[in-house]
Write a structure and sequence with these properties.
heterodimer; A: mainly alpha; about 65% helix; B: mainly alpha; 2 helices; rod-shaped
């Protein structure tokens, strides 16, 4: 398939099938991978890592056009994504790289903005790397405690301190439910983080700080997410080199 | 004695900051959501993987994957 990747700009969401995409916002990053690989039109190409694909579909859609162009240049990422699907062990390793980043990098970076959450940031950073089910489950209680603290700080900042107790109870209930199954527990810990930390901390940190105070953290985490993406892809690339 | 004028000014100041906070919080959540979805997708447990689907479809309104 012919496409000048150096001129491609990705668009948001799924796009209608086209035999000749222009690359002017008429395909997302994973649709470009399917197209370049010669696969049927899809945002879930068979040749690509399902874990990395999920990461990129989500990130592709949440970024502004300007950030997407800056962070996800097609010429850099599409060639690495074609053929990136790994064996089950590789995909699992990639999944834990994402969880580890959430727990030990992303969450503490936000907590650094709120003095009352500093100890939680330190505790999360001090955790051993989350590499498997056991280490994921072992980190769960600390993650819940940190999330509860962030929620309490946010609600206190909003003048609803009394509701924080209800928040603690909700998190405790979520923790009990998560103990039902090990993988579900790890998944629940991840879900607890989803969409929560940035919002909580933004509220907690905002009583005397304009939104711009959050900008450096966002930029740092965008760069860090690129490092995570590189790491997840490199994980499979190294394995392929080893088996040659 | 409550300084009503100061109180109103403070409320207005906070209200003006709200869009900026929301904007940067949403930008910050982008990386967070991507990593969560990626992790959940890596599970061989259908229930856990479905969490990832829920987040993707809920947040991004992408159609259900076949």
């Amino acid at each position: 398939m012919n496409m000048d990747l150096s001129t491609v700009s990705f668009g948001v969401g799924q796009h209608p099938r086209t035999d000749a995409p222009t690359g002017d916002r008429d395909l997302c990053i994973m649709e470009a991978v399917a197209y370049i690989a010669g696969e049927p039109w899809s945002d879930s190409p068979d040749c690509a890592s399902p874990v990395v694909s999920a990461f990129l579909r989500s990130w592709n859609d949440d970024l502004s056009d300007a950030d997407r162009d800056r962070l996800l240049p097609a010429a850099v990422w599409v060639p690495r994504l074609v053929g990136s699907r790994g064996d089950p062990a590789t995909e699992e390793r990639r999944a834990y790289l994402a969880l580890d980043w959430l727990i030990r990098v992303h969450t503490p970076a936000w907590f650094d903005l709120v003095p009352s959450l500093a100890s939680h940031a330190e505790a999360l950073r001090a955790l051993p790397e989350v590499v498997d089910l056991a280490s994921a489950v072992a980190s769960k209680d600390l993650v819940y405690a940190a999330e509860a603290a962030a929620l309490a700080a946010a609600w206190a900042a909003a003048g609803h301190a009394a509701r924080a107790a209800a928040g603690h109870a909700a998190w405790a209930a979520a923790g009990d439910a998560a103990r039902a199954a090990a993988w579900a527990a790890a998944g629940d810990a991840a879900r607890a983080v989803a969409g929560a930390v940035a919002g909580y901390v933004a509220l907690a940190a905002a009583s005397d700080a304009a939104g711009y105070a959050l900008c450096p953290t966002v930029e740092t985490l965008q760069a860090s997410a690129l490092d995570l993406l590189d790491l997840m892809l490199a994980c499979g690339e190294h394995r392929r080199e080893e088996t040659k | 004695v409550i300084d009503i004028a100061a109180l109103v000014a403070e409320v207005e100041r906070l209200q003006q900051m709200q869009p900026k906070r929301d904007y940067y919080a949403s930008l910050g959540a982008a990386q967070e959501r991507a990593a969560v979805v990626a992790f959940l997708r890596g599970s061989d447990d259908d229930l856990v993987a479905d969490y990832g689907d829920d987040i993707e479809r809920g947040e991004h309104r992408r159609e259900e994957k076949v």
